[in-house]
Amino acid sequence: MKYIPEISFWKDKELQISGFQFFILEELITDDLNPSDHSPYLPHRLNFYAILIITEGEVNHIVDFKVHTLQKGDVIVIAKGQIHAFEEHTEYKGYLVVFSEAFMQKYMAQASIARINHLYNYFLRQEKLNNPDYNQILFNKLKEELKSDSSSLPNIIAALLTVYLLKLNDANTHLVTTSVDNRYLEYFNQFKLLVEQNYSKTRDAKVYASDIAISYKHLNEVSKEIVKTTAKSFIDNYVILEAKRMLVSTSLSVKEIAFTLGFDEPTNFLKYFKKHTSLTPVEFRNALA
Questions:
Q1: Helix, strand, coil % (nearest 5) of the chain?
Q2: What are the tens digits of pLDDT across the range 268-277?
Q3: Could you tell me the fold of the domain covering 182-287?
Q4: In DSSP terms, which residues pair with 93 in a beta bridge?
Q5: pLDDT tens digits, one per residue of 79-126
Q6: Pairing relation of β-strands 66-71 and 44-46?
Q7: The HTH araC/xylS-type domain covers which part of the protein (predicted)?
């Protein structure tokens, strides 16, 4: 099968701003922009952050194996590490903004980055947001400022992105976490970070509760309040998502993936994966061949 490539930022292109690119979707897949290392219409894994905004038409966009229907005014943010693909043979217009982690760390304030990371947390956000007014403001401002040769241009672009993303985050927070205790959000963010760092070492929710210094019962309450599932289910969902990503974005054998994910025996991984997906790892991989 053809494995899903991981796409790094445009290191070999001379960019106006290092770590930042702005595309008109209609111009994205032209001869001079068409990437040689992958097809935008086939799933590929991003090593940077993206904002996809639709201004006209309707399109189905795949992110992490889910199909999202986007229409005029819709915006979807795609986090570093997620897998996505454009739909081919569909008439729609819009634009794509991409930026690297290095750009974000260099030009955005740390307090803002924390909130922006909350927006890019795909466990805590709406699948899409409709924000036509701010979308148009961002588009107009980016077009205007990118004509400049100011030495402060990266800072200006970062400021525009920061304002836009913070407003998106406020809208998303209102939709997703209305009336949720901030302390619950803090606990969940700690839990999620620990899972991301340690899922290959342990899938025991009680261990994570202990690390956060709360009871297992309290962690379950937090998880159910924030993501509507138990802490154990959240861990399992995360492990399965990483397993799927590895199956389609690497040439590692199922045995190697099992050990990478922290399973003592490949057969245990096989049973675990089939329990949660109704497919074996090989069946899932072949389905995307």
A1: 50, 15, 35
A2: 999 999 999 9
A3: Arc Repressor Mutant, subunit A (1.10.10)
A4: 56
A5: 888 888 888 878 899 999 999 999 999 999 988 888 888 788 777 666
A6: unpaired
A7: 189-287
Of 161, 180, 174, 80, residue with least CA distance to 121: 80
Mean pLDDT calculated for residue range 235-242: 94
Amino acid at 80: K
DSSP code at position 177: S
What is the DSSP track for 130-164? Answer: E-HHHHHHHHHHHHHHTT---TTHHHHHHHHHHHH
pLDDT confidence bin for 1, thresholds 50/70/90? very low
Phi and psi torsions of 97, nearest 5° = -110, 130
Place domain 6-176 in its CATH homologous superfamily. Regulatory protein AraC (2.60.120.280)
Residue 22 · residue 267 · CB < 8 Å: no
Dihedral angle, C-alpha 113, 114, 115, 119, nearest 10 °: 90
Q: Kindly report, residue by residue over 248-266, the tens digit of the pLDDT.
A: 878 899 999 999 999 999 9
Q: What are the tokens at 161?
A: 């992105």
What are the residue ranges of CATH 1.10.10.60 in the chain? Answer: 182-287
Q: Which part of the chain has CATH 2.60.120.280?
A: 6-176
pTM: 0.77
Q: How far is CA 115 from the centre of its chain?
A: 15
What type of residue sits at position 70?
A: L
